[in-house]
From TrEMBL:
It comes from Mycolicibacterium vanbaalenii (strain DSM 7251 / JCM 13017 / BCRC 16820 / KCTC 9966 / NRRL B-24157 / PYR-1). Belongs to the class-III pyridoxal-phosphate-dependent aminotransferase family. Its cofactor is pyridoxal 5'-phosphate. GO terms for molecular function: (S)-3-amino-2-methylpropionate transaminase activity; 4-aminobutyrate:2-oxoglutarate transaminase activity; 5-aminovalerate transaminase activity; identical protein binding; pyridoxal phosphate binding. GO terms for biological process: gamma-aminobutyric acid metabolic process. CDD domains: OAT_like. This is 4-aminobutyrate aminotransferase. Pathway: Amino-acid degradation; 4-aminobutanoate degradation. It catalyses: 4-aminobutanoate + 2-oxoglutarate = succinate semialdehyde + L-glutamate; (S)-3-amino-2-methylpropanoate + 2-oxoglutarate = 2-methyl-3-oxopropanoate + L-glutamate. It is an enzyme of class 2 (transferase). It comes from the Bacteria. Its EC number is 2.6.1.19, 2.6.1.22. Coiled coil: none annotated.
Amino acid sequence: MSALEQSRHLATAIPGPRSCELIARKSAAVARGVGTTMPVYAARAFGGIVEDVDGNRLIDLGSGIAVTTIGNASPKVVERAAEQLHKFTHTCFMVTPYEGYVAVAEALNRLTPGDGDKRTALFNSGSEAVENAVKIARSYTRKQAVVSFDHAYHGRTNLTMALTAKSMPYKHGFGPFAPEIYRAPLSYPFRDAEFGKELATDGELAARRAITVIDKQVGADNLAAVIIEPIQGEGGFIVPAEGFLPTLLEWCHANGVVFIADEVQTGFARTGAMFACEHEGIVPDLIVTAKGIADGMPLSAVTGRAEIMDAPHVSGLGGTYGGNPVACAAALATIETIESDGLVARAAQIETLMKDKLGRLQAEDDRIGDVRGRGAMIAVELVKPGTLEPDPELTKNLLAAAHRAGVIVLSCGTFGNVLRFLPPLAISDELLLEGLDVLELILRDL
Ligand SMILES: *Cc1c(COP(=O)(O)O)cnc(C)c1O
């Protein structure tokens, strides 16, 4: 197959006629609960470009929600996954194990923060891995309660819906939810400013506020685990104030509570570190990964301290497909690509480029309340001019116009007013800046 040309190109209006046909077939065949962001259907994708079925080439600033971090259909991944496909597609690791699974576990034990003895278990989706992290923490502590945070997103299965904060669209009408889940206040610097400058900048103070809630409403004696995204994804790319995560971790360790970092969205070079916890120098007890792990092959993992990971009895963990051999081959190729191509440093470069450009836009436009994030995980929070009041309407219009102009960009945030950028690290500077230029022009127009 010929290489996909790395330029934005509109061959038809968006959506084009082939996409329109597929949109009609989708509404007749697919459950409406499964929504779609983009109005076009994909045909091919590579580097920083997604080509649709009408021959439009779109700039990819979403990476399929932080999944194709190293670039879609990355060459080494394609090669290794194809090799594995020809050998065997599945045996079930719990029946006839294979080396790829063990090699992925070894790689994750090596790459995740912390030098101690570690173990890993593999699953299929981020939600499934989060559920298993909770199982492991409960088994280890012999306690039941779990604390998650305001604005958290941990998935759509029953237990993870309970951990997730936002009702619409993730939980609305889908209860009852799993019991023994409690919520604590996050550190959200942009919005905490309302409650005083100190809370916005002092992560330790924000952590103390959360710890008081946890202490009084749950109690450490009942608490198995605290789970947190080191930078919240769906919740709005919220980077907690410095000191928030270390203070929480310290409290967990002093109180026999397992600290689980959900790095499903932030992992694998995305934030300019292999894992986002490294920015705060913390070593979580358990770390949950998925999304960027295997360039789109379904795979997820829980990695952590051996003594905790080994708490569940033999055969207490598993699943038919967990650690599928093709997905494992893709993961090993993904990790190799991150290391050999210096993609951690590339993510840091992208941060500089984007923050520079978006910072200049913010200086001229008081609808841009905040520019934040790390690495190639950058967001813009849109507000009514000069206030903290969210502007979801502007966000929606901006997204729709960007999509029509051939730029794939996503929103997020509890208030639906955050534009989030998750470009693949394989994107060129030129394409990335062109995507942002398109957004700038649209923003001026609106
Ligand atoms: C996407 C996501 C999940 C859920 O992963 P799925 O593979 O969609 O089940 C969990 N946690 C975080 C932080 C995520 O971004």
